[in-house]
Specification:
single chain; 759 residues; alpha/beta; five-stranded parallel β-sheet; 13% strand
Length: 759
């Protein structure tokens, strides 16, 4: 049996790419120095895979920022506003990713959205009617040759033409099908180039095939590939899917002249059934996604080998593959020096998954793998009982009733009461929660973690930072304040550290977008709150001002979705356990005099099934109640906020309203405020703050720009329901740009408020 890896993490073992890129942004290194670091990282990644005997190693899975953005640049899909800057190729690329503000011009970044059901974000290509899609770059060829010089034959990975067209945003009257001819020609040029280089296999990633497809979609897919594959030369083509099953188009796929088809047999629940019912062509290789590319638990060899045995009855040639790119898991367990071996033995990060693939290939060739020592060792670990079981938590969860998920009185009555109690102005201004994490903030946290200072000294500095943050917000004229979240390393990890049942890593970083990496905690057992988590910090902040200070919490669904979850109990049970813990924190905040409490659910859509038919049969039917569980016990005058970002929420807007928050803030700036129509059409009851500027870009929006955004919002949202805020937390931004942006935000709100009050 042979093996394949769809893609490998690119940030490096110690996040080398992140730090090098940020140095480049600051002008501390030049393009050549950045490229040198990238080359060394790619070499290291190739060698890891070669040492574990991976047969089909991917090239071109590397990116400085995002693979979709790489493809856009490769295909000349660069909007004119970025070309007009007259920057070099790399700086134009980063302008599309991050925005740009300088003597050459002022442009916003491209929109950013969640990559299917992951915590990775991709840049949304923009295609205008007059844009000529054509091959203009050589990155896939260069990276293939780079591996070739190391003695490796790789399969170049390219986002497939169909997925690219479906994910793109169209700025005109033309749609995806109108650019099909250009795409076929551009990808034909790619294949011609690979043919000349002697490339044996090319991987086209088409994850969009696991979504709900129309007949028109399938017709476009067939049209593209039936013509494209006639021009493949000597290259063999692997159609790679992941994150779900291909129930809408399986028969179409197997009827096209692909040489290999990659299917996910973990998240793709129906893929095994599809193979059994329809068979699999003898002239194609099945790349079977059986090794989890999204979770960190050790692979259960028994399960994999049993599915592989079933598949052998239908497919003559099988390649063991990851279920998706390993981009979504941490780099290696070797960096984890503090985890107990009893715990650590249960995990496999990207490098360890390569070793698992090697062992599985060995077992697949054994006459009786059940007697092999590597199999017996694996089963002993997989079947062993976990730590951190808590019968009391299990009982609390089992005894939850309908009243625990219902807040009274109804929202309209609460909102009227809250307006009378808090006397907030029209278009109240606020922020999402976090303020810039400066070197001073990071040094305080680092010193505490290293044992150089104790908790008292650590908190003293945190309180000083909170004091300054409150004073700055008062100076800026913000209406509802926040404490800045200086005590938090991460909006999920911080809470996990105060919850029983969690395991934490030292360096298990995962790329979220661009240079942004997160270190998800691991749910290892039953979850409960150990102690009050935020009360002291929020109470101190409130004591400094007569204005309202929001208590800042992360919601149960986001904590779950931004953690690596258990696989031995349901997501629903984990969400309810976390919900009970957050409920306890909410009630303690209220008791301490915090009248406005924000419970962020930034990741509500993260684990939502990709297909609409599955939304209410195992996700939304518990995810929405899990949030309501957190706040159903508060007083009517306590105002509950929530926040969501970087997903398409239009289709579940009624479900979001049913979360029964009093106020919700959305990321909206990069998505060009497309959610507004859904809010209006659904008669949205929750008060709403669509983000009016993009915090993931260093550019500072002008007062005039923000004023125009607010005017647009008022065409869709009732003036009594509109809040004014940035689109997300400010922790990744610098102080100067943050203060300048917030000053302009407050001024814009003041101008629009004065005009509205005169009407």
């Amino acid at each position: 049996m042979v093996s394949a890896v769809i893609g490998f993490p690119r940030v490096g073992k110690q996040r080398e790419l992140k730090f090098a890129s940020e140095k480049y942004f600051r002008g501390e290194i030049n393009k050549q120095e950045l490229e040198k670091i990238a080359i060394e990282l790619r070499k290291e990644h190739f060698i890891y895979q070669k040492e574990q005997g991976i047969t089909y190693i991917s090239s071109n899975d590397f990116s400085y920022y995002d693979g979709i953005l790489d493809t856009a640049v490769l295909l000349n899909v660069v909007p004119e506003c970025y070309r007009a800057l007259k920057l070099n190729e790399l700086d134009t690329y980063f302008a599309m990713a991050r925005g740009y503000q300088g003597a050459e011009g002022d442009v916003k970044a491209l929109a950013m959205k969640k990559w299917f059901n992951t915590n990775y974000h991709y840049m949304v290509p923009e295609i205008s009617d007059d844009m000529k899609i054509e091959l203009v770059g050589d990155k896939p060829f260069v990276l293939y040759q780079e591996a070739k010089e190391l003695g490796l034959e790789t399969k170049p990975v390219i986002i497939g033409p169909f997925t690219f067209l479906k994910l793109a945003k169209y700025q005109g009257t033309k749609k995806a099908k109108d650019f099909a001819e250009d795409m076929i020609n551009a990808y034909s040029q790619l294949l011609e180039g690979f043919h000349k280089l002697g490339v044996k296999w090319v991987q086209f990633d088409e994850p969009i095939l696991v979504t709900d497809l129309t007949g028109e979609d399938i017709e476009l897919f067939e049209q593209i590939y039936q013509r494209l594959l006639k021009r493949k030369g000597n290259c063999k083509i692997l159609l790679q899917t992941y994150f779900g099953d291909v129930r809408d188009c399986y028969s179409n796929i197997i009827g096209i002249a692909f040489d290999g088809i990659g299917l996910d047999f973990l998240e793709g629940k129906k893929n095994l059934e599809l193979v059994k019912q329809n068979g699999f062509p003898k002239d194609k290789i099945l790349f079977a996604g059986l090794l989890n590319g999204k979770n960190i638990w050790k692979c259960n060899y028994k399960n994999v080998l049993e599915i592989k045995k079933e598949l052998q009855e239908y497919a003559e040639q099988i390649v063991l593959s990851t279920s998706c790119s390993l981009l979504h898991v941490p780099y290696t367990l070797d960096s984890e020096t503090k985890l107990e071996q009893e715990v650590k033995q249960h995990f496999a990060f990207a490098v360890e998954k390569l070793a698992e693939m090697k062992e599985l290939c060995y077992l697949a060739e054994s006459s009786d793998y059940t007697k092999e020592q590597v199999y017996l060792d694996n089963q002993q670990i997989c079947e062993s009982e976990r730590k951190y079981q808590d019968k009391e938590v299990q009982k609390k969860t089992a005894l939850l009733e309908e009243k625990d998920f219902t807040r009274l009185p109804k929202r309209a009555e609460r909102q009227e009461l809250q307006k009378k109690v808090y006397h907030l102005p029209l278009f109240p201004t606020t922020t999402i929660g976090s303020f810039p994490q400066t070197q001073e903030v990071k040094k305080n946290r680092s010193s505490y973690r290293k044992g150089e200072i104790d908790k008292v000294a650590y908190d003293k500095k945190v309180f000083e930072l909170i004091h300054d943050c409150i004073r700055k917000q008062e100076e800026l004229g913000i209406d509802v304040l926040v404490h800045g979240e200086y005590e938090r390393n991460d909006m999920v990890e911080f809470f996990g550290e105060n919850l029983a049942g969690y395991i934490f890593t030292e360096k298990a970083w995962v790329q979220s977008y661009g240079t942004r990496c997160v270190k998800p905690p691991i749910i290892f057992g039953d979850v409960k709150r150990i102690r009050p988590i935020t009360v002291a910090y929020s109470s101190y902040a409130q004591s400094l001002t007569d204005k309202q200070v929001k208590g800042m919490l992360t919601g149960p669904v986001t904590i779950l979705n931004w953690s690596f979850p258990r696989e031995d109990i349901s997501l629903k049970e984990m969400a309810y356990q976390i919900g009970i813990a957050i409920r306890e924190e909410v009630l303690d905040l209220e008791e301490a005099g915090i009248n406005i409490i924000q419970i962020d659910e930034a990741a509500l859509k993260e684990k939502m099934p990709i297909r609409k038919s599955d939304w209410y049969s195992g996700y939304l039917d518990w995810a929405i109640p899990a949030f309501r569980l957190c706040h159903s016990g508060v007083r009517p005058e306590t105002q509950i906020h929530t926040h969501m970002c970087y997903s398409e929420f239009e289709e579940i807007i009624r479900d979001i309203d049913n979360m029964d928050a009093d106020v919700i803030s959305f990321e909206a700036s990069r998505s060009k405020l497309t959610i507004l129509d859904a809010i209006k059409d659904s008669e949205f009851e929750t008060e709403v703050g669509p983000g009016i500027y993009d915090i993931h870009s260093p550019r500072v929006p002008s007062v005039e720009e923000l004023e125009e955004v607010l005017k647009k919002l008022l065409t869709k949202i009732d003036k009594d329901k509109l809040w004014v805020n940035p689109d997300c937390g400010l922790k990744t931004r610098g102080i100067a740009e943050t203060e300048a942006s917030l000053k302009n935000l407050v001024e814009a709100a003041k101008i629009v408020r004065e005009k509205a009050e005169k009407c």
